[in-house]
Amino acid sequence: RHREDLDRPSIFLAGPIRSAGNWHQEAIHHILEQSQDVVVVCPSERKSLPKHFETHLLQGEEGRFKSKLDWERHYLQRSARTGCILFWLAPRPESAKSRNKVFGATTRLELGLWLGKYSADPSLRLCFGAHRDFPESRSLTYYIKTESPGASVHKTLPELCEQAVDLALRR
């Protein structure tokens, strides 16, 4: 679904998707338990949420955009200005450790892009969290704190979701 006329702030869930467990579902629950005054934008296509959350969720690709990346880019930009981008560096599961791919490669690229944008425009609303088992989490935490003075890097998803709701609603 695509809604130009969203009447609520949006929280975009940015972080690993492939082989990253169910952190998106957990984040959606934490966010919507705190406030139903937001829309959660989730690029993951996994769906098994309670029916009453459906009106508070935008998920996946839609026909209006050429690709899922265009959809993500649109909602990342919208959320940074009128809600919040929540970056969660989720733990890499054991099953993903033997693969030759870099875990969270796209997330790392997006994080770097948005840290650069934030450095140029501190009015953007971003929040960060890193699980200790995300590869290179200590180095990434250093860069986040260096490039985003005053930013917290949360160690748990519930704490991060609380900050995302606060930022989105400007509490």
Q: What does this protein structure show overall?
A:
- With 171 residues, this protein is α/β, with parallel strands linked by helices.
- The chain has helices at residues 23-34, 68-82, 105-120, 137-147, 157-169, and strands spanning 10-14, 39-42, 57-59, 84-89, 126-130, 153-154.
- Strands 3-2-1-4-5-6 form a six-stranded parallel β-sheet, with helices on both faces.
- Helix 1 (23-34) crosses helix 5.
- The protein is globular, with a radius of gyration of 15 Å.
- The two termini are 28 Å apart.
- The mean pLDDT is 86.
How far apart lie the N and C ends? 28 Å
- Give the spatial strand order of the biggest sheet: 3-2-1-4-5-6
Radius of gyration: 15 Å
Structural class: alpha/beta
Overall strand count: 6
Count of DSSP H/I helices: 5
Q: Which regions contain 5 or more consecutive residues with pLDDT less than 50? A: none
Biggest β-sheet strands, sense, barrel = 6 strands, parallel
Helix content: 25-40%
Please trace the helix and strand order, writing H or E for each element: EHEEHEHEHEH
Calculate the mean pLDDT score and round it.
Answer: 86
Which geometry do the CA atoms define?
globular
How much of the polypeptide forms β-strand, as a percent range?
A: 5-15%
Distinctive features:
about 170 residues, single chain
